[in-house]
Amino acid sequence: MLGYVLRRLLAAIPVLAIVAVLVFLMLRLTPGDPAAVIAGDNASSEQIAQVRHQLGLDQPLPAQFAIWIGNLARGDLGESFFFKKSIGELILGRIEPTLSLAAATMLIAICVAIPLGVVAAYRHGSWLDRIVMGVSVLGFSVPVFVIGYLMIYVFSITLGWFPVQGYQPLSGGFGGYLHRLVLPSLTLSVVYIALIARMTRASVLEVLTEDYIRTARAKGQVERKILFRHALKNAAVPIVTIVGIGIALLIGGVVVTESVFAIPGLGRLTVDAVLARDYPTIQALILLFSGVYVLINLLIDLTYGLFDPRIRQ
Amino acid sequence: MSAEPTVLAPALPSPPAISLAWRLLRNPVAVASAGVLLVMTLIGLFAPFLGTIDPTAINPAIRNRPPGFERTIRAEDGSATAFRYRMGTDSLGRDVYSRVLYGARVSLAIAVSVAALALAVGLLLGLLAGYIRPLDGPIMRLMDGLMAIPGILLAIAVVSLFRAGLPAVIAAIVVPEIPRVVRLVRSIVLSVREEPYVEAAIMAGTRLPLLMARHILPNTVAPLIVQGTFIAASAILVEAVLSFLGIGIPPEIPSWGNIMAEGRSLFRVYPHTILYPGIFLGLTVLAVNMLGDGLRDTLDPKMAGR
Description:
The complex is a heterodimer.
Chain A: H1 2-28, H2 34-39, H3 45-55, H4 61-73, E1 79-80, E2 85-86, H5 87-122, H6 127-141, H7 144-158, H8 174-207, H9 211-218, H10 223-234, H11 236-260, H12 266-275, H13 279-307, H14 309-312
Antiparallel strand pairs in A: 1-2
Chain B: H1 16-25, H2 28-45, E1 69-74, E2 80-85, H3 96-131, H4 133-147, H5 151-161, H6 166-192, H7 196-203, H8 208-244, H9 256-263, H10 272-299
Antiparallel strand pairs in B: 1-2
């Protein structure tokens, strides 16, 4: 098991290194002078030169990379040109809403999608199966923001159950926090439910044809236990994998959902940074999101051993 | 879903394109989806003749009118005709119906060009990685890196690098789609190059370009068609998302994403500017996805119903 963990850890390092190089090159590949872009349209040539020096853009590329990586390693993400404050601080202040949204979405998605997928596989070919599959394709086919506006229209404007937009920090009371979190996380969970339900169904469907399921039936095991103990546990690896891969979708969805519901999180920060062409902030955010994505998938790889003892060796 | 005896396929290779089309025709969902796409394409092509007016014509006097609003339009020769704004007007007084119909043109063009570009670049890189050993490592590590950046975020990053415009948006949607195509092509090449007929061709002295074109490339066609449909579906969605975030194609070009982006601020009072393009977009992407599922099931019967 330890060897397996080490191998997975070592495999994640080059990927993160490549992401870092790509993100570093991003600014340097911009057509034109990045210092001029960052300094803005009305900057004087002295200001541009100052920005160039500040970013280290007047040095050779490898040296720039070394400085940048060195700063990152010390936890210094640099200074935001638009928000006029350190990027580390900026990100820290925006983590709570995004983390809450992502966690709530994941919770809803897993609780809804896995039972749906199992039942669809068990009743393979029935109307229920067709509905689950049909709705899941529909979930893939509508942009997140359209789902968000539909939710707002139905649940906020027509029924008045939830506030239209906004976020309340956890420190302002749990009730209000949760009340404002329901619609955004429901919105964001639609795609995720579609993804996980499909994979659960396919995976359980395959396992249900195995000999040990027939054996379990033959010995008189109750169907519910066959489904959830024998089938689901053996179907777990692909399901857990898709939950991890789906994090990429979730991160993209966070950016959009936070814009729809005016949530001041990292996604909204990303859009604001892009609109303001605040490259150091964009770089830091891409690096952060990609790092989280890779690390979560690494952690998920490590859980395979829990489900499948063969992987532990 | 139906149990067809596809296992007993003839050993002799039948013309693949014809039998594929034939099998696809027996899949009612795929046929219906193809029908929807045909209608959308025709709408896009013939938008000027479907009772539309200039989709970019601004008219401050009739902003935010509800669907069904009527007004007489005076032509230059003095004749007056009643024009009905079937889907209402947006906050600049433009006809939403005309914009949605012309939007089909823009959104479908983006879908097709993104799919074609992603497949072309991915195919080239995949063939190189799969066949030329020294290139395999560098290309695949680069793809790993690109895949580690969540798609929408990568698209946003690419957009932010260039001046806003159609080429930048297309590039932004293409780049995140490339790694999956490269992986697909590479895995096919790696499995095909061990086949006896490829080894025989190499032994017979077939030159690399001919070997690629005649023996390796044909194996990638079917999976690439399936992948291409899914890329097209996601391209329409990503374009809409980028436009919605305000970093998509220039707002005067009517794409479905842009029409919805324009309507977002007044959504609470006038939902029709998001509703109608949303329905068109959802229907189209749904049809592309369903067609992709149908194609995949037809090409790989083992995947049917999954």
